[in-house]
Protein: Cytochrome P450
Amino acid sequence: KRRNFPPGPTPLPFLGNLLEVQANEPGYEAYRKWQKQYGSVYTYWLGTKPIVSVNDYETIKETFIKDGDKYADRFHFKEITDMYRGGDYGVVETDGPLWRDQRRFTLHTLRDFGMGKNIMEERVMTEVDHLLERLEKQKGEIYIQKEFDISVGSIINNILFGYRFDEERVDEFLFVKSSITKQMKEFANPFMFLIILFPKLRYFPYFSTVFKRLFTYRNALFDFFEKQIEVKMKEVDLNEENSNDFVECFLKEKERKKGTPAESFYSDLQLQNLVFDLWVAGMETTSNTLTWGFCYILNHPNVQAKIHEELNRVIKSERKVLSSDRNELPYVNAVICEIQRLTNLLPQNLFHRTTEDVVINGFTVPKGTAILPQISCVLYDEKTFPDPYLFNPNRFLNSDGSLKKVEQLVPFSVGKRQCLGEGLARLELFLFISNVFQKFQVSSKIAPSMKKKFGTTVQAPEFFLIINNRFDA
Ligand code: HEM
Structure:
């Protein structure tokens, strides 16, 4: 089988190259090593599945960007996904007309709802205000990851269901969050990975325990979403033009689509899965990136000094930073670019699938092959980002101090499957980072470890902040 694919590392029977990927947490060292050995395109194997990896930006541009439709399908392990989701539902793991319709609907809804009012910024700023208040109230050291989790979780929940996790609802949030965390841990368990590759293993001792555990967490999550949707279904006024949240928009769109070919895309199971995708993709990613940001800045005190210098010069007072200040704060933006580059949040990216036969660098890759833009290799490419493991925001600044646009900065991936929440995530990163530093001087007793843990998204090590109000007399 290997002869037909671009050459790459030799796979072991059954396991493929899995052990090499897992040998160095969080996984991307193997991809970078193979890039040096085999060049811009190679094949590695997960179990008996070949994965074609496209590693340098120029080739990614020629394929995933310029010829996007041919790389637009999603590769996933269908048997397990179907059990998990109840069939082909959601947006992350669907293809074809359903995916196109739901992706378009979601993008429009996230952009437009609020009817011209900047509802997105309002909802993010509400959480910025609450976060600053909570931080100020806490004495001693602060576990910042938890604070970001609650803030970002509240934003996505408010967008989806119209309410935030205030003090009375924090337990509800912690329950959902812990179901996701436990589930992610199960997915990172090598036994689970073997079940995904060979689903019949789930009937064997020990494997069956792991599998059942996964489904307990899955059911807890889906129950939560189902209940919120039921409440919305009872409350929604389908004739009211304005919508307060995403679920309301979906239910109204469902009504509009009745009797059209797209009617079947607006089922109850689709709504549950869509909400699940947005909640999970929208929460963990942004919260972890923020936490990594603080981890890097605490390790580089001069960066914080420069952020404060810029905020003093541009904002001039104690007022909150708004998204309209974004263009005036090139250094803050450069810091965020560097946080996203070095965090490299999805070190394995998500797999795509070719929709037809394609030829890349002279190799024919058949229709239906798993393939991916290996963004880790682009974000850590020495040619574009010399000394790639160094945290250096200056690489995103021109000599006159303005922000440098670097097209190789692709933490949200590229092409037709590019992150659907990019706009929201960028807004959150800017408003949280700029406002926390606007208000506080941040430090820690010891500099946090920068060691990454393996997972779908890289997890930051536990660390604690000490804050001082910059404007106290
Ligand atoms: C810093 C934060 C984030 C990062 C780094 C990030 C990164 C990514 C990446 C790398 C992908 C895979 C793209 C591919 O398949 O090539 C992705 C997909 C996706 N992201 Fe994000 N993301 C972030 C935040 C968000 C947020 C806030 C949301 C939702 C509101 C979101 C929703 C999604 C969805 C739904 C997909 C699947 C898109 C599709 O298959 O069509 N993400 N994201």
